[in-house]
């Protein structure tokens, strides 16, 4: 069962940042590295990114940008990859990525996905003064089952923890440069999440308890979001 898990968010072809993150997590002795996908659509080399993910045996799910490349959709976005410009090996890798992965940890089941479950566009956000709540009946169903104490997703590009009675949701953020690129390490033995940033070099910026305490808001499910949340972040 996994205890120390390296977490990499949306890659967006940032091969140099990905190389640094993988090397650093490996040096810290993690049991497994996981990634929330969106390997496509970015300024770097998607071929190198896929080679790195394969060489480090990273458990990776498919994001909406990966799906869009395969479907040749939304190619007007900045730094978009074109399907006809990619090798067959790249397309095959993206095509065969699962939408979600379940892993057994010492805490119990961990669900890895890009959005929520098989919905790669679903966002979850309890609501703040600047951004209204994003609710999810799909996540509410997962919470109600009570068999998934930890979920890791991406898409939102913001490294944060959202606490529910029966589940903790960790958003893995992104390696994309203009979103303060970084990654995380979950240590279930120490009950903590360590946040790292990549600029100017890899450095640790924050430790955060994984389990909720008296200082954080705990929700029953996403229907109880109140637009008055104080984000629990993994940034400096």
Please summarize what this structure is.
This protein has helices at 15-27, 46-55, 64-71, 88-96, 137-145; strands spanning 4-8, 32-35, 59-60, 100-105, 108-113, 150-153, 160-164, 168-171, 182-187, 192-197, 203-209, 218-219, 232-233. It has 236 residues and is of the alpha/beta class.
Shape: globular
Distance between the termini: 30 Å
Helical/strand content category? alpha/beta
CATH class: Alpha Beta
| CATH topology call | Purple Acid Phosphatase, chain A, domain 2
Main sheet overview? 7 strands, mixed
Helix content: 10-25%
Order of helices and strands: EHEHEHHEEHEEEEEEEE
Low-confidence stretches: none
Rg, Cα atoms, Å: 17 Å
Mean pLDDT, to the nearest integer, reads 97
Q: What key attributes describe this structure?
A:
236 residues; alpha/beta; 7-stranded mixed beta sheet; 5 helices
């Amino acid at each position: 069962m996994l205890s120390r898990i390296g977490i990499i968010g949306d890659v967006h072809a940032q091969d140099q940042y990905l190389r640094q993150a993988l090397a650093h997590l490996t040096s810290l002795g993690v049991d497994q590295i996981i990634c929330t996908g969106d390997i496509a659509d970015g300024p770097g080399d998607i071929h190198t990114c896929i080679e790195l993910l394969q060489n480090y045996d990273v458990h990776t799910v498919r994001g909406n940008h990966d799906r869009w490349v395969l479907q040749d959709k939304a190619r007007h976005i900045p730094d978009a990859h074109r399907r006809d410009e990619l090798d067959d090996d790249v397309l095959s890798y993206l095509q065969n990525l699962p939408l979600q992965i379940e892993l057994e940890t010492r805490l119990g089941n961990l669900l890895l996905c890009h959005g929520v479950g098989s919905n790669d566009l679903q966002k979850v956000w309890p609501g703040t003064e600047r951004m209204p709540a994003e609710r999810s009946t799909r996540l509410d169903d997962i919470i109600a089952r009570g068999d998934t104490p930890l979920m890791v997703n991406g898409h939102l590009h913001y490294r944060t923890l959202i606490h529910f009675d029966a589940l903790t949701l960790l958003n893995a953020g992104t390696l994309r440069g203009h979103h303060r690129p970084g990654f995380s390490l979950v240590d279930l033995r120490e009950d903590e999440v360590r946040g790292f940033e990549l600029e100017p070099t890899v450095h640790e910026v924050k430790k955060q308890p994984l389990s909720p305490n008296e200082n954080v808001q705990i929700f029953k499910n996403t229907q109880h979001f109140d637009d008055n949340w104080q984000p629990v972040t993994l940034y400096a």
